[in-house]
């Protein structure tokens, strides 16, 4: 019994424990430098695309451990289309952004049809897509970089102004954090009450409150750190919208439960009346849609579309999912844990860079962390 309880505890809180240990190590190794307001902002800003991609990649992984290798190339192609329209053809920014999103959806439909209805393995389809879209990116750009105007980059990179005119702190950032924490706590409390009334097991009240206090403390600590630099960037709003929407979809909606059902046992899901083909199709259309959003965010950060934009980014998204507790077999994983995994990767990369590790050493350690996460998942399943 103790062994089973310990195993369940590690499955539920292993990523949190790992996060605390890793953060503690780099706080020690950098003498607190990693927690400087500028570095906290850098972790969020530099990994914005990872948060968005990992959220979409989770849905693909839920369907049975499947992945999408084309997301980096999709980002590049979408950015190339947008930059060409805006800079070379004077298309209004709003219209160009609509075309960029539509391009991502079209790519998703193309790949989703082959995967869901022809049943070609996702690995093959998205590998072909990676090569195809990378080539199309170079054709669109002509092998050159195309700059993005300020009217485009401001939609992602500007800072939310402090309406309270704080001196040493951006008070608006703290207020936003307090509002988010309050809404999250009230929502969780209402959900707990509803589940209790329906007779579902909700766990101890003490555990619920401890968890709420820890999460609230982390959110407020991040917001206070951000307030000590320049506050909150608009890109954080983009990330928050994506995360909250998909958190709701995966945890509260019927289609969200279908993803878990297909990943848990596809044959059983099909016999229960779930249209499994549609689930696969939605997963890959959605992935390309979010890749388009990530391409917009990252090209705004660079202020340009470049031929090698997004190179290897699919690996960052996949690693974030598995480190965040998504199962290599599918059917297990949550959006908050994936975001925690992405944040952990960002901390590891920034911490290693601050401690003087070169890129090769960073790659070795990141690879070992990913392998360790998957080994933990496989051994946990085997024991179960």
Protein model, in words:
This protein is mainly α and 384 residues long. It has one domain (37-158, 233-383): ABC transporter involved in vitamin B12 uptake, BtuC (Orthogonal Bundle), CATH 1.10.3470. It contains 16 helices and two strands. The protein has helices spanning 2-29, 37-46, 48-62, 71-89, 93-116, 122-141, 150-157, 171-197, 205-227, 234-252, 254-264, 266-271, 276-302, 313-323, 335-354, 359-383, and strands spanning 146-147, 304-305. The chain has a two-stranded antiparallel sheet. 39% of the residues are buried.
End-to-end distance: 12 Å
Q: Report the sheet-strand fraction.
A: under 5%
User: How much helix is in the residues?
Assistant: over 70%
Which consecutive residue ranges, at least 5 long each, have pLDDT under 50?
Answer: none
List the helices and strands and how they pair.
Layout: H1 2-29, H2 37-46, H3 48-62, H4 71-89, H5 93-116, H6 122-141, E1 146-147, H7 150-157, H8 171-197, H9 205-227, H10 234-252, H11 254-264, H12 266-271, H13 276-302, E2 304-305, H14 313-323, H15 335-354, H16 359-383
Antiparallel strand pairs: 1-2
List keywords for this structure.
single chain, 384 residues, mainly alpha, ABC transporter involved in vitamin B12 uptake, BtuC, two-stranded antiparallel sheet, 2 strands
